[in-house]
């Protein structure tokens, strides 16, 4: 078994060939261009066309600069796991991985056993530095993952069903027996959110500062945590469910129901955006890929389906149970059932997921939640006896952006980031299935009313079409010429009728409007303020 | 097997000493940033709101005139000084920085209708209802003048009397000629006491005129027969005339694109024309609700300012669109109409002056003072008290 250590000097540096270089760069540039350029040929205005061409060139240059920076300036490289010979990657066990990697990484593999306090659930902050763990029997803990030190733990002496961090590690919300509560990092209870009711699952929308919850009666609540106002509460109408996920790409909340349907919601409408029938049995788990276009759902009928959200079609069906699903930043899908975890990835050119790694825990551990740690090659497993963490090489994003999420944040940076993210807080109306619609032109909605000429020509065309049709000649003396002429007239009148009716309606509306206007004009000046005003 | 896991050492990613700057790492991947367009929209909206919150355009007012101010002129070589003429014949030179009168030019017997400064900054030409054109020497600014405790009054260099009242005057760029508008357009030389030539097309009065900055022999005028006429001094008769639906009160040429001019019209719109193609207006600037009285272009040629009878001053972009800013105060008034014409404001852009390198707009109207505004509404005027948000 060959071992590649990253800490030593690089052994073989092969300069890439020119051809490889340009092809790869092209792909990268495409990623940064964020779509196609504008079609400038259709513009008549030469000055505007000149200005826009210059701007498009600048976009191209900035995309190229970003692609080059990505290639040469990134400080870290991603992880990988390659099997050699007849070895298969899914047979490799965590112990063998621990032997190959350095000490600081092998510290990320551990099991924390807390058997008394019930099945655990956990949540990470967006930088991956802090973790909140909640045991069902009331144990709440906030842990600093870098030093593996416990910041605060409290016992609330009530059932806790879910825990979620708010915008940073200072605040977290716990879904307790009757209502969800918001706590400080020091364990001080800050708020009791009575309107939500007995919540089963909580989710936090980071860009909008909205806390979404689904409760025992199937009611969905959205609350703005900056102002405290309730933005929306809806009855889903589909019963009790505890499968809820947020799509990070567009901020839409997806619920999985016991009828096998998945519904997607936004805070400004009381009807779901999308309702799709995914499984034959109840939906057991749901997960979204970070790019927002791929969703994985698992049903109780032992199928895991991978959906394309742009076309709402199944991309792939995998066999197997999954009580919990999660996607990593790099697109690896982790599924767990009982005490068995399976990680799949799409490594080939086609979009199909295949087995990558597996891990079995001690029999009797019931895995409740899987969560990949952001910016690390670590998978956090929360189960009935506590929580564990295992190494999955290649699952995390190696290069973080300090302005987006910084695992090495100081308190000053955290405060600045909080203020800036509050300034950039998005209003709840920006949540939509396709977030790129913002800033586009509204398409012309109503057709222009057809002009008089158009209407007349339409009528003539209809009449001409009908005129040429031959009338059936009846036998036994019933086809007199006078009768057939009358019938022809009738047919023509019948085709003209809808057009004439519409005309009459419009004329009536016009005359009514004129009457109203003249009525108001007749009023003396002192009484004008009592005239009926048009509703705006 | 080959395996590698992400491992970050704290030393590489944090600073070594507390005097160092914090380390910043960037990853420009679009997947890390969700809903970029919505965030940009919110940021643009917040920036516009903050701009409006911090808008303090009024800088000051220069008082001194007894009667309403009817016209203004600026010296292109010395932007610290503005000339203003009032309805009682009083012409003053103001120092914008100290907001005091530097020099007075008494002499006119009635309202001063037009003021123009020659391009070299030496001669000031003024014309009025008393059918006289007066030429004055512009006093050279010395250091001792900025305290303004003594107000000099100057004697005219020359007084030319002619047959009828004058409505406007403008001086040629880089030349010795100036033109007056009245019953007809008269072209004068500074040294002659009679006009060297005059143009006439029709029998109506010519209300305003402006020389082209790029082509010194071309002149645009507007008449009370709702027309805009273009003249070339090298030819013996006027060149082009267009007749609009309503009267044009003032014209201004774009200093950066000298073939374009904008006309301020009585029907609340401003029309931008290309002088070579007068069949249709290049752009119609619509925003005022009452007659536009005066117009002037910024030296950059990118925007122009208009004053109107509805007591507002608006700044428009040169190539179209609604006005970018509106200035209006309670103090701005319009006076009663005198015979058949009405007053609004007469606007001039004074240009850059210290301190702070602000772009300043000077306007005057029937409120008897020359008011100064900052062209960038929300630029900081003094020390920033609040921290950067």
Automatic annotation (TrEMBL), chain A:
Renumbered residue ranges of the record's region Disordered: 1-20, 430-536
Keywords: Nucleus, Repeat, rRNA processing, WD repeat
Sequence ranges of Basic residues compositional bias: 472-486
UniProt cross-references to SMART domains, sorted A to Z: BING4CT, WD40
Signal peptide boundaries: none
WD repeats: 276-317
InterPro entries assigned: BING4_C_dom, WD40/YVTN_repeat-like_dom_sf, WD40_repeat_dom_sf, WD40_rpt, WDR46/Utp7
The protein's name: Probable U3 small nucleolar RNA-associated protein 7
Source organism of the structure: Rhodamnia argentea
Automatic annotation (TrEMBL), chain B:
WD repeats: 62-104, 105-138, 199-241, 285-326
InterPro entries registered for this protein in UniProt: WD40/YVTN_repeat-like_dom_sf, WD40_PAC1, WD40_repeat_CS, WD40_repeat_dom_sf, WD40_rpt, WD_repeat_DCAF13/WDSOF1
Top-level division of the source organism's lineage: Eukaryota
Keywords on record: Repeat, WD repeat
First and last residue of the signal peptide: none
GO biological process: maturation of SSU-rRNA from tricistronic rRNA transcript (SSU-rRNA, 5.8S rRNA, LSU-rRNA)
A single cellular component GO annotation: small-subunit processome
Pfam families from the UniProt entry: WD40
This protein's name: DDB1- and CUL4-associated factor 13 isoform X2
Native source organism of the sequence: Rhodamnia argentea
